[in-house]
Automatic annotation (TrEMBL):
It comes from the Bacteria. Gene3D superfamilies: 3.90.320.10. It holds the Pfam family PDDEXK_1. It comes from Thermodesulfobacterium commune. The lineage of its organism: Bacteria, Pseudomonadati, Thermodesulfobacteriota, Thermodesulfobacteria, Thermodesulfobacteriales. InterPro entries: P-loop_NTPase, PDDEXK-like_dom_sf, PDDEXK_AddAB-type. Residues 681-991 form the PD-(D/E)XK endonuclease-like domain. This is PD-(D/E)XK endonuclease-like domain-containing protein.
Length: 997
């Protein structure tokens, strides 16, 4: 029976093991017959390193055979199997399973490739679990009813599926890692290993640090160890006390029939004095703050590989960590042992964007968002020696598309538009050539994929275009370049060969299936990084730390979901299905608890970092790991106060919410100059009245958001403006009745032509396009019907069109409160100016609105004219009172402003001979079927005298007050109406300005 030995983690496990192993042992050639097996390659490597250090002092010449479990299985498989097969990648092992599906399901795989691909991956995981537990698959007579039909069918024929799959896999020359392990166990059970050549090479076996064995691993060790009298099972325990053994160690001892037959290694072998580690906990709300603080703990380059380690619970922390390491003042030699997901690399996001562009095509046209995601990708800058090219060239393409508002685009239209374009030093020929090359490499090549080799060629073309074809032949120095080098290595050795060699069966050879395979590879492959594993700062994943000891240990992201890691969900491996398949249901918490305890106790100095994000719209909710809570509780039970530091972000918060953005004298002078030189419209004043902060960002800082893609809120309004302008233009200056000029066919014809000119079919999806067109046409026809009915009822006797899109202005001398006079030009563009003969002649200023809910508030306007007096202060309160009188939407202000301009220009439109008339302003809202026209004034005839008096003599004083408020108030005041902020493009800027310094 093997000897069982316990070594505490805080004695420096591997060095202590070396001391014990070498005690009384002669390191001559007989040592070669001693085999030592570790759970992972890194612990085996470190053991060998310590053995060399110790053996070097003793002038040793030979060393034992040292394996990881993986290399041991590989070695035994090759030595024992007559015709050994390589394991191949997961996707290569998946292809035979997809070939077997039609035989089991009687279903054409190519027709449902994506669905079968998904379930194929899930069933591979089922087979691996069964093989790990050495269970022969059996059919499920009654599979769970909540599974899709395909999964139910496969479970009902699971045994046949498994046997036929393994037969085809073997025929193709592949084998799965778990099946390989199973084959080794089966072979060892059949032979007498001691009588073989392989057995003659072994006299003594050490199994070091194994815990939580699966059934097939247990069988392997039992059948292997029974052949040798000298065998040792060495376990790492978190603490020295043998009475408190972790359950995973107890269970492993029981597997080998050694419930109490173990001993703790005597202290004379310990590599260092056993001490309780010093532990400090850090809490932060931001990953970058966490990393910065962690790197502050590293003050010099580690001289030994077991000096400092950074352990990452979440591999996505790696790239931000590398970036911060490169900025560190002291030169650091770094070894990164973990693999990084391929899909986190910039080039990978470009390749997935290329795939998405093909998938998002609609009727042969590219989705604008997908197209822009490719041409705006920063990796494209690698193609040009001049880094400004992308900004100078691709930006105009984006502006062109956004201005058009297309949701889909034609490559030919882009090439035609920019075939006559030149920018700066770039000639028309250069730009035309480059745009065609970009389209060819990233779009057109991918349209005509007919075989796997086409994928390989297209990838090579992209690498060539980006000047990356020979990148790996050059020496790299920066972290970023080394990372890119390793990424390209994976592309060239794992991804490209998959498509350029004859791996794929014929049924996969269509574009969609091939893109699915490429996308899977780009999402699942992992990139090895860099460094010498026995030098410098060690950056490790959790599983790489097994059996290792470090002087200073820095653990990042000790958060729930990262430590312990959340299990990937497989709907075919629920606890219910596992019990039916006789797969054990493990308590993973026990295993991770063991890993955490041994890791913390193996170091002298431990720094634990976690993120705490409770509720956030911009960040994922984060909470500390259960092991952080348990550690704090244990320390408190021992009467110790956990040492915890809160990492604070470096910013100051205002003690109260600010009212506005301060106006400097320079800003006031700039405003004065602008008002004196430029014409100002009602939009200028409306923005100021609604929100001073928005006015500041828009007119002072001159910031604007890019045009949104596709349909824009203002598009319906622009279309309706254009339609009525085209329809009524022939009648400008003339008298007419709608009853006389109405022709529905002509209206529909004009509508169709204009709708096509607006290119709405490129701005909508087909259903939205149909609905929008139908509703807009119905709205226009309803408005004409409204006017015709008024005419039939003799409420309207005639129309005279005075102006369409009429530009009116007036110059006014504004007296400022400091005594100066400012000459301002107020202007506006009027959609419709109409003279309408009704009971009383009316002069109407009409503005088209596509939103049927926008309405003036006549009651408020009447009160404003009759009762309101201007404030004597220029502060927030006075501004709010003005806003209150004009209504939240400021619809009253727009019509007030237009009335003021019309009164100043009325001699152009109203003959002096006309003495009985009404001037009014309102909105035309065709989509409001009930009341398409809505007016600012709803008064009796005698009340209009007060309106005329107001606009002739008093309205100017109100505009004068606003100008003075602009120039002499202390701040650009934030709005008090939160509804104004909902869709404001400046909201993020505003929040920072409002709450932070």
């Amino acid at each position: 029976m093997p000897q069982a030995i316990l070594i505490p983690a805080n004695s420096h496990f591997l060095k202590t093991l070396v001391n014990f192993f070498l005690d009384g042992r002669s390191l001559d050639e007989s040592i070669l017959k001693t085999w030592i097996v570790f759970p992972n390659k890194r612990s085996a490597l470190f053991f060998k390193h310590y053995l060399k250090e110790k053996g070097g002092k003793n002038k040793a010449g030979f060393f034992p055979r040292i394996f990881s479990l993986e290399t041991l299985v590989d070695y035994l498989y090759v030595m024992l199997e007559d015709h050994p097969c390589p394991t191949g990648t997961k996707i290569l092992r998946l292809l035979p399973l997809l070939e077997v599906f039609p035989q089991v399901l009687s279903e054409n795989v190519s027709e449902n490739f994506e669905k079968n691909f998904f379930w194929g991956i899930k069933f591979l995981e089922v087979f691996e679990e069964l093989e790990k537990e050495d269970i022969e698959p059996q059919n499920l007579v009654y599979p769970p009813e909540n599974l899709p039909p395909i999964a139910q069918d496969l479970f009902e024929k699971l045994k046949k599926l498994y046997l036929e799959y393994n037969a085809l896999l073997s025929q193709k020359g592949w084998v799965s890692p778990t099946f390989r392990l199973k084959r080794v166990v089966e072979t060892l059970e059949k032979i007498d290993l001691k009588k073989t050549f392989l057995g003659s090479m072994i006299e003594e076996v050490w199994l070091v640090g194994f815990a939580g064995l699966r059934k097939i691993e247990e069988k392997l060790f039992k059948v292997f160890l029974k052949n040798f009298e000298k065998a040792f099972l060495v376990f790492e325990v978190p603490k020295e006390d043998p009475t408190v053994l972790p359950n995973v160690v107890k269970n492993t001892l029981q597997l080998f029939g050694m419930n109490q037959d173990y001993r703790v290694l005597p202290k004379k072998y310990y590599a260092k004095e056993v001490k309780t580690p010093s532990i400090k906990i850090y809490r932060s709300t931001d990953l970058h703050l966490e990393i910065t603080k962690a790197l502050d703990l590293i003050r010099e380059n580690p001289q030994r590989p077991d000096e400092i380690a950074i352990v990452l619970s979440d591999p996505n922390t790696l790239i931000p960590l590398i970036y911060k390491l490169e900025q560190k003042d002291i030169p650091l030699e770094v070894n990164i042992s973990l693999f990084y997901p391929l899909d986190s690399f910039p080039l990978n996001s470009l390749l997935t964007a290329v795939i998405k562009a093909q998938r998002d095509k609609i009727q042969g046209l590219y989705s604008t968002q997908s197209y822009l995601k490719v041409i705006k990708h920063p990796m494209l800058n690698r193609a040009f020696s001049d880094n400004t090219f992308g900004e100078e060239f691709f930006k105009p393409i984006e502006d062109f598309i956004r201005n058009k508002g297309y949701v889909t685009i034609d490559l030919g239209e882009i090439e035609k538009e920019f075939g006559v374009y030149h920018q700066g030093k770039y000639t028309q020929d250069i730009i035309g050539k480059i745009i065609k090359e970009v389209h060819q490499v990233f779009f057109k090549n991918w349209e005509t994929i007919r075989s796997p080799k086409d994928i390989g060629k297209n990838l090579e073309k992209i690498l060539e275009f980006l000047n990356l074809k020979d990148f790996n032949l050059k020496s790299q120095s920066s972290f970023q370049d080394i990372v890119l080098h390793n990424y390209l290595e994976v592309i060239e050795t794992e991804v490209l060969p998959f498509f350029t060699k004859d791996y794929l069966p014929p049924f996969i050879n269509n574009k969609e299936n091939l893109l699915t395979l490429l996308e899977y590879l780009l999402k699942t492959q992992k990139v090895p990084l860099f460094g010498d594993p026995l030098r410098g700062l060690q950056i490790l994943g959790l599983m790489e730390t097994r059996l290792l000891s470090f002087k200073k240990l820095i653990l990042l992201d000790i958060n729930e979901g990262s430590f312990p890691p959340s299990q990937k969900f497989n709907p075919l491996l629920t606890d219910e299905i596992k019990s039916w398949l006789k797969i054990p249901i493990f308590n993973h918490n026990e295993l991770w608890s063991y890993y955490f305890d041994r890791l913390v106790n193996s170091a002298e100095e431990v720094h634990l970092f976690y993120l705490l994000v409770e509720k956030s719209t911009t960040q994922e909710v984060k909470e500390p790991s259960r092991f952080i809570h348990r550690l704090k509780w244990e320390l408190e039970q021992q009467g110790k106060e956990p040492e915890e530091e809160l990492i604070q972000p470096n910013f100051c918060v205002f003690s109260k919410r600010e009212e506005g953005i301060p106006k400097t004298e320079k800003i006031k002078e700039s405003l004065f100059n602008h008002l004196s030189r430029e014409r100002v419209s009602r939009y200028y004043f409306e923005t100021y009245l609604k929100c001073g902060a928005k006015f500041f960002f828009k007119y002072i800082m001159k910031l604007r958001e890019p045009e949104r893609l596709g349909f824009k809120v203002e598009d319906p309004g622009k279309f309706i403006h254009s339609f009525f302008e085209e329809f009524f233009r022939p009648y400008e200056g003339k008298r007419f009745l709608i009853l006389e000029i109405y022709d529905e066919n002509r209206i529909k014809n004009k509508f169709d032509i204009l709708w096509k000119n607006f290119e709405f079919e490129k701005k909508f999806d087909p259903l939205s396009h149909y609905l929008s067109k139908t509703i807009t046409l119905a709205s226009i026809l309803k408005y004409f019907e409204f006017l015709r009915k008024k005419e039939e009822e003799k409420k309207i006797k005639a129309h005279k069109l005075l102006g369409l899109e009429k530009d009116l202005e007036t110059k006014e001398d504004i007296v400022l409160c400091d005594g100066r006079t400012l000459n301002i030009t107020f202007y506006g563009i009027f959609d419709f100016l109409i003279e309408r003969e009704e009971e009383v002649r009316k002069y109407l200023i009409m503005d088209f609105k596509s939103n049927p809910s926008i309405s003036p508030q006549p009651k408020k306007m009447k009160e404003f004219i009759n009762k309101y007096s201007l404030p004597d202060k220029y502060d927030l309160e006075s501004l709010c009172s003005i806003l209150e009188n004009f209504g939240d939407s400021l619809a009253n202000f727009q019509l007030f402003f237009y009335c003021y301009l019309f009164y100043k220009n009325k001699q152009k439109f109203i003959s002096s001979k006309v003495d009985n008339y009404i001037i009014n302003a309102g909105f035309i809202r065709p989509s409001n079927f009930k009341e398409p026209e809505d007016f600012l004034f709803n008064l009796k005839k005698k009340e209009y005298a007060a309106v005329n008096q107001f606009f002739e003599k008093e309205a100017k004083s109100f505009l004068e007050w606003i100008v003075n408020h602009m120039l002499f108030s202390e701040k650009f005041y934030f709005t008090e109406k939160e509804d104004f902020c909902k869709y404001c493009e400046y909201l993020p800027l505003c929040k920072n300005y409002r709450y932070l310094i």
